[in-house]
């Protein structure tokens, strides 16, 4: 399982953001969304893999707990065949080893009730937070006290009155390819024929070109989320609607669209994007590119809206289900998923980080790499995924 | 093909049974069952892979011979397209190189009958024994004189009057995972819902717990089979029918069953298990976990019974086919196959041998590892499988 | 991608033709057929992989150009989604980077028309020649001036009045296994039951046995093609029709056939075979075993005939399509494809080159290895395939 981490010989040659390039399996000691609240009912057991670590969730009396998905005895995955004999535990299907979710302690062996290892062994536990319909898990050292969840999500994500609706799917590309695809301002070129463009009457340029290095800013205050944001003001970024080659116009964007969106795009530690507003003037889109392992990520998409009443939330819920899932989250972002998967091979052995050739419009991505290098709380390594 | 052997850095850290952990491809200079007699008719050619070695059998005038399944010339597998022009030989489909099964000598090249390499090259041969309806092959150095087959099977297996019926199937797990699954006394937990339990009216506990270290013995006499056996006497092993967690009964075994089986389970070099009696009071079950390569084994299952007449054998044959294949060999042991395959990933890169955490009920398995380390006649290595 | 090249420890032990054994991905600075003319129409874009290099062809005003199939920016394959906005260019589907085929220069970015990298970056180009209905590409260093195509094809291949018809298919075997299978005079054994034998009324022996070392000659003049050829004269090669083992006839070839073909077989740098005449007295067969990567080759088959008029060419075209494709190119050579794929495993990790055991009839193959070692213009290495 140590396979798939970055070759040190490659890492030695990296000049900018070495810690980011090293983080093929993600950053350690951060919060990550893992599943949606609606996916785990009372007493249901749900497995996941985050940053290479195989874990298992259970909801007990409403609260969600998480332990490592591997019996200490012979190492089998507990989730391969779920057996629960008490509400607070899971029992290994192989020899009956039973673990308490609260502390991971082996509190029984079904067929060996007098064993002297009972109470003396345990699986590790993971801190869990459930907020806004999302189950977050802290992937890090068990002895590390997790910082507030607010530090690991975009600003505003957890605000009162801000409701979220979302979905997730696995993508066959490293999480950094996901993150950079989302934050990359010139990749808008791939969306030129998207079904969302007409549906949402978007003014869609073929390129969003930063006019100078001040086209992005960072947020790096202690105790808060760390991120880089583009400002889409006319002084900072030029939306190009007339596509040209050698001075000749070869393709038009859609300048006639009524909605010129978004106004700012930002990326946040450890792996979140915020597009504001999108796909409509009163909605914000959030994305998380959660590492599964070195070659795949869970792509979480959320739409957020600040509502003032239950009725307003119900209306947003209806709009989400009936319009945005199909047109925006699937219809528009399928181009991104396709692009990430098409880009995976080049970076698969990590030499792509040395062979790529970024250009001036990629300044925000370089800044993101530096910020992630500086503000991460650790790098996930081979020793963490066994 | 050298891939898949144990990393020496892992092996260095092994404390108990180093030679056993090293034997990912099995032990060398031992007899292994390869196919059933009924699978190879007169002049039929049958390929197999044992301990990583690709071999080919042919029955000639009733006797089965075995040679390496690789032409010396360009290395192609002879079995890929079988061509036999004389009873005693096989001809390579590519250039007509023809090998005599008796001694492996290149005794002709069909289209180059005057070649000066005829009689001067050969493929290696393997010693074969056919006993009790089973074709055994000696996987070892060609210059080693094989010991009697009796040393490499459980005691009683070849006894006069003892008839055997069996089957085989490939399992996607290392052979040692197969062997340890079979000999492991607390894994009985996985069989609690087996169809065999009611069918054979078994008293099935949820755990078989050794009461002290004397719960198993070894057989290590020179010139005989080497093995470890559990004794299921009340002084040695406690059958637990009441499954408990935290003092609460959470699940019952089947104490009401009429047949309390087995009375002893034993494991034998190089890779055989004996369960006595099983699945009925007058029958013994034998299993062999024959290495195919580092990740798979052939799972042979035999039922043995001592009979006094041809009629008794015919009755046993009928019982075997009509009852035991479905209820016991398939119905009961499918749980074991599933468990082995689910356990394979943890041990696949061999770090599992360092990360596992055995408990007091695994004393017999630790003893088996030591015995196998001490009594094997060699370790299969990369140089043997090309 | 560096995986799959020859292990230096293996190469150290090679005694004959070290450069040939090293050339797992083919020879560098040579011409290779890549596609057929009929496969690429005006303005059509066609990708290929030759010697591990991913390239892309486009026909512009009748002439075919070739560039590397990888955007300089983030390394995605241009061919994954072809977008062309001008006749002379291809535009990367991801960020609109646009490359001119003639010189590979980045001559525009559709959505960033003012970018300062325009005109300053480029992808590499490859020299192309279109002759006799075949697109050849020069796989080599961009600064190397390609020699005339005539040096890299068999003599006569490009002669005036010599018309060619052909096909191609991918084969799952290293290109050297393809080349040696074709040139190997005793492999005729595999064709003994081919449908072509009766159809073309061939005199087909079971072996073609060289009578002495003079059974082959080489062509090594400066400035011309380099090759080894067998002469099928009665003094040099003995066609064996009576297959024998231990002095007994076990199988007959087909001595009664009217057409005793071929009269000479030759092999040419970098990877071509000529069989003359074949499959009929007035036709020559040419084959190219073009490396795709270390494990696959494109198998080109051509039949060539010297014609004196348009009508004669039309008749040959009809004969090719209606008879030879089915009976010869597919029907006869499918045995060869099968044999190459069956031989791949033995040579896959390159230890097969050390473990094989050639015999006296393989003298022409040994000579070919030496000639290829001496006359190649470079070895394709890991640094060339990224």
Automatic annotation (TrEMBL), chains A, B, C:
Keyword terms, alphabetized: 2Fe-2S, Dioxygenase, Iron, Iron-sulfur, Metal-binding, Oxidoreductase
Rieske domain: residues covered: 31-137
The keyword Iron is annotated on this UniProt entry: yes
Keyword Metal-binding tagged: yes
Recorded superkingdom: Bacteria
Gene Ontology MF terms in the entry: 2 iron, 2 sulfur cluster binding; dioxygenase activity; metal ion binding
UniProt name for this protein: Terminal oxygenase component of carbazole 1,9a-dioxygenase
Source species: Lysobacter sp. OC7
């Amino acid at each position: 399982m140590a396979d798939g981490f970055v070759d040190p010989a490659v890492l030695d040659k990296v000049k900018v953001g070495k810690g980011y390039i090293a983080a093929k399996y993600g950053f350690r000691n951060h919060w990550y969304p893992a599943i949606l609240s609606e996916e785990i009912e009372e007493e249901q057991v749900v497995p996941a893999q985050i940053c290479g670590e195989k874990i298992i969730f259970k909801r007990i009396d409403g609260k969600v707990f998480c332990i490592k998905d591997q019996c200490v005895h012979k190492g089998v995955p507990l989730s391969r065949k779920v057996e629960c004999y008490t509400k607070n535990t899971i029992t290994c299907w192989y020899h009956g080893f039973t673990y308490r979710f609260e502390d991971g302690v082996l509190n029984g062996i079904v067929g060996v009730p007098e064993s002297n290892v009972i109470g003396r062994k345990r699986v590790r536990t993971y801190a869990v937070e459930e907020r806004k319909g999302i189950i977050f898990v802290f992937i890090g050292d068990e002895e590390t006290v997790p910082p507030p969840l607010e530090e690991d999500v975009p600003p505003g994500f957890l605000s009162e009155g801000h409701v979220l609706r979302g979905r997730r799917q696995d993508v066959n590309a490293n999480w950094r390819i996901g993150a950079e695809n989302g934050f990359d301002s010139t990749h808008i070129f791939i969306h030129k024929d998207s079904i969302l463009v007409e549906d949402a009457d978007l003014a869609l340029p073929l390129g969003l070109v930063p006019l100078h290095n001040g086209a992005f800013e960072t947020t790096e205050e202690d105790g808060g989320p760390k991120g880089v944001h583009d400002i889409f003001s006319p002084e900072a970024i030029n939306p190009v609607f007339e596509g040209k080659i050698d001075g000749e116009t070869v393709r038009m964007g859609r300048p006639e669209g009524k909605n010129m969106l978004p106004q700012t795009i930002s990326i946040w530690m450890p792996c979140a994007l915020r597009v504001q507003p999108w796909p409509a003037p009163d909605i914000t889109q959030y994305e998380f590119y959660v590492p599964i392992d070195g070659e795949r990520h869970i792509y979480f998409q959320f739409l957020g809206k600040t509502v003032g009443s239950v009725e307003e939330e119900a209306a947003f819920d209806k709009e989400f289900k009936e319009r945005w899932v199909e047109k925006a989250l699937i219809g528009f972002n399928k181009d991104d998923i396709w692009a990430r998967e098409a880009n995976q091979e080049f970076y698969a052995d990590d030499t792509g980080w040395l062979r790529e050739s970024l250009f001036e419009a990629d300044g925000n991505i370089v800044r993101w790499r530096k910020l992630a290098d500086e503000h991460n709380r650790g790098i996930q390594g081979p020793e963490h995924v066994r």
